[in-house]
């Protein structure tokens, strides 16, 4: 039986809900089949040789030649169906995670001594945050907000705390095109930052190494930030054709004054841990050699304080600001939705992905 338009639309929705990234090859095939099913044979001019992403998409679509629209639609539905049936949940249980709890591909979440630790776990990518990882962090925070722990800690595995947004997120374009991707990403960003704004317990960052981009901006929403003296704090938004997120356009001027915030958020000045501490973004800096021992000893002591009292104190300190923070978050996300489509941003991202530039 031929796939109907309804089957096709339902398959398009299922693609958005895939738990596992199917990889670039499959995504290109999905793109090509979608275009063929909706527009017929490739009718676009061939992109330039350095326009890697559009060239790969064009090649995939063009390779379908004169495949009839109905067959492309059927193949699209079959491909999505094979992806959804093969995405069985993994049975691996991360060390320390309670059985029955959520499992994560890009995080290690443990709960011990009254502390839930959420550790970014993509050390080979410097803990860059992929689309899936944004979702996992939100899930882990929501679970931590309801578990028995008194304090929640966010930290990184390996030599980096986090290198910010995974720039490969820009290559993962859905059938609706780049505008649709920007729209979805703005919603995801707003939800992600909103989860930090609303987090009800003391939230502590243990910054074990360099921090970049969104991993820095959201620090303004944490209740304490402990840093190794190896850590640096870098928000190179102008270099990337971007603008601030994570409510930093509001929290940073408040924390460090507008002039210092300008150096970080507009001129992209990278701060050492000592400088970030002097400017109030970091609570305390520790020598790297004793960082883990000193910080965890301290956190274990704090975790024994009465939990309700700590939650209520956090509410008293933060609640007056919540409405404002949500408004700032919505505005920053909507500005970025436009920025992501700008030449400045696309060129900077392409330069990184084609290995022509690093920060
Ligand atoms: C159409 C719209 C889509 C929008 C989707 C957006 C969704 C929400 C966005 C929220 C806003 C967030 C903004 C930010 O966070 S801005 C900051 C972004 N981060 C960067 O620009 C950092 C880029 N990385 C680097 O410059 C360097 O890798 C770094 C200085 C961090 C480390 O350099 P070093 O030489 O020590 O290490 P390597 O470069 O060799 O890194 C090892 C491998 O890891 C890869 N890597 C590292 N960071 C990232 C990253 N952020 N994104 C993707 N990949 C990253 C690096 O490429 C290396 O890979 P290979 O081994 O394959 O070469």
TrEMBL record:
The keyword Glycosyltransferase does not apply. It catalyses: (3E)-tetradecenoyl-CoA = (2E)-tetradecenoyl-CoA; (3E)-octenoyl-CoA = (2E)-octenoyl-CoA; (2E)-tetradecenoyl-CoA = (3Z)-tetradecenoyl-CoA; (3E)-nonenoyl-CoA = (2E)-nonenoyl-CoA. Residues 83-102 are annotated as: Disordered. GO terms for cellular component: mitochondrion; peroxisomal matrix. The keyword rRNA-binding does not apply. Signal peptide: none annotated. Its EC number is 5.3.3.8. Pathway: Lipid metabolism; fatty acid beta-oxidation. It is found in: Mitochondrion; Peroxisome matrix. One of its GO terms (molecular function) is delta(3)-delta(2)-enoyl-CoA isomerase activity. Residues 4-89 form the ACB domain. Its main location: mitochondrion. Keywords: Acetylation, Isomerase, Mitochondrion, Peroxisome, Phosphoprotein, Transit peptide. It comes from the Eukaryota. It is an enzyme of class 5 (isomerase). In the C-terminal section; belongs to the enoyl-CoA hydratase/isomerase family. Able to isomerize both 3-cis and 3-trans double bonds into the 2-trans form in a range of enoyl-CoA species. Has a preference for 3-trans substrates. This is Enoyl-CoA delta isomerase 2. It comes from Myotis davidii (David's myotis).
């Amino acid at each position: 039986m031929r796939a109907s338009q309804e089957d096709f639309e339902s398959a398009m929705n299922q693609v958005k809900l895939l738990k596992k990234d199917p990889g670039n090859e499959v995504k290109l095939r999905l793109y090509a089949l979608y275009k063929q099913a909706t527009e017929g044979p490739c009718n676009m001019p061939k992109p330039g040789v350095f326009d890697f992403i559009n060239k790969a998409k064009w090649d995939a679509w063009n390779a379908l030649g004169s495949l009839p629209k109905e067959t492309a639609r059927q193949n699209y539905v079959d491909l999505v169906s094979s992806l959804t049936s093969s995405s069985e949940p993994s049975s691996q249980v991360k060390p320390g995670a309670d059985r029955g709890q959520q499992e994560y591909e890009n995080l290690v979440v443990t709960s011990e001594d009254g502390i839930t630790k959420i550790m970014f776990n993509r050390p080979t990518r410097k803990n860059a945050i992929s689309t899936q990882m944004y979702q996992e962090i939100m899930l882990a925070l929501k679970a931590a907000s309801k578990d028995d722990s008194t304090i929640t800690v966010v930290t990184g595995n390996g030599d980096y705390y986090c290198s910010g947004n995974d720039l490969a997120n820009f290559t993962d374009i859905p059938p609706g095109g780049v505008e649709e991707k920007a729209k979805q990403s703005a919603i995801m960003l707003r939800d992600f930052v909103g989860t930090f704004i609303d987090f009800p317990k003391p939230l502590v960052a243990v910054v074990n190494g360099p921090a970049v981009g969104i991993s820095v901006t959201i620090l303004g929403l944490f209740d304490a930030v402990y840093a190794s003296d190896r850590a640096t704090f870098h928000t190179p938004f102008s270099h990337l054709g971007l603008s601030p997120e994570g409510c930093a356009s509001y929290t940073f001027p408040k924390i460090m004054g507008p002039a210092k915030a300008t150096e970080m958020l507009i001129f992209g000045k990278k701060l050492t841990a000592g400088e970030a501490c002097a400017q109030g973004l970091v609570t305390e800096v520790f020598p790297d050699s004793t960082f883990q021992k000193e910080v965890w000893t301290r956190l274990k002591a704090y975790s024994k304080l009465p939990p309700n009292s700590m939650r209520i104190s956090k509410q008293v300190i933060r609640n007056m600001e919540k409405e404002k923070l949500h408004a700032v978050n919505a505005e920053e996300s909507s500005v970025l939705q436009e920025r992501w489509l700008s030449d400045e941003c696309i060129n900077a991202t392409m330069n990184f992905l084609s290995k022509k530039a690093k920060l």
